[in-house]
Amino acid sequence: MIETVHSFEKPLAACTVAIAGLGLMGGSLGLALRGKVQRVIGVARRPETIAQALAIGAIDEGTSDLSGAGAADILVLATPVSVILRQIDEVGRLAAQGVLRRGVVLTDMGSTKGAICAAMAALPDSVQPVGAHPMCGKESSGLEVAEATLYHGAPFVLCPLPRTAPQIVALLGALAVAVGACPLELDPVRHDHLAAAISHVPYLASLATFAAASDAAQDDDLVWRLAAGGFRSTTRLAGSDPAMMTDILLSNRAAVLAQLDHLQAHLTRLAALIAAADQPRLHDLAAATRTARDWFLDAQR
């Protein structure tokens, strides 16, 4: 068994960080942490991925499984949600066997938090868990598009468990700040509800919009020649990784279905106004929505 000062009693600069999953999120985290922690260990199944991560400076060393991250003070699971859930079980087994450092801080980058935090609650006391989700990304995925600035200015959600000590939250808050993000504590259920509204259901709306245009193209393929920047912007999210998004949607079903009901209600209202040729109310609704969106965009600057 590895004995040491508990990880959460160390400053971030003295910590060894292991990142399981070296795609866009994990690779970008490794790049962003360069020079800000003691060292970064990358965990990936494919030797080519480890070699690539070493070549671009995202990690200092690599291993093919979680047991090779025994020296880590902070272990980050940067894999799809379904994989994270399996890895949490593995972390529990490795901790019980004394393979992992006692007091290791476990966190993740999963896009939903309810199921992940529930699984983390069952971990042994030797593991200190905090669910997390940096609210950033790209439509493209993979280590080849990783960048050190990915997290700059992004909310970095932290979901402490009831058992989580304040100093552990502080350590992960310091990690978020070190990569340029803004730490924000949220309850897992609240996170999932909000993520459904601003990420998961907009993805579904993008899919539906493109699918409806494809239906129109069955009758007249000129539609694709007419499609311009507005259509591309509206359907941008449809270009996201289908496997990743399916994983996210199914892990947040209740919140996604509830938000879909809200979206459908708005579409039904719009349809009724158009059917009634109610120009004043349609105009007022569009104007109010534009004003609210302008406020949102101004607040982001």
Description:
The protein has 301 residues and is an alpha/beta fold. The protein is built from 11 helices and 8 strands. The chain has helices spanning 24-33, 47-56, 81-96, 114-120, 166-178, 188-219, 222-226, 229-234, 242-251, 253-275, 279-300, and strands spanning 16-20, 39-43, 61-63, 74-77, 104-108, 127-134, 155-160, 182-185. α1 (24-33) links the parallel β1 and β2. The longest helix has 32 residues, at 188-219. It is elongated and about 70 Å long.
Descriptive labels:
301 residues; alpha/beta; 11 helices; 8 strands; 13% strand; elongated; disordered N terminus
Helix-strand sequence: EHEHEEHEHEEHEHHHHHH
**Overall body shape:** elongated
Instruction: Give the beta-strand count.
Output: 8
The stretches of 5 or more residues where confidence is low (pLDDT under 50) are: 1-5
Over the alpha carbons, how many angstroms does the gyration radius reach?
22 Å
**How helical, in percent, are the residues?**
40-55%
What is the mean predicted local confidence, pLDDT?
A: 95
Percent strand equals 5-15%
Beginning-to-end CA distance, first to last residue: 49 Å
Strand order of the largest sheet: 3-2-1-4-5-6-7-8
Number of helices in the DSSP assignment: 11
Largest sheet: 8 strands, mixed
Structural class computed from helices and strand pairing: alpha/beta
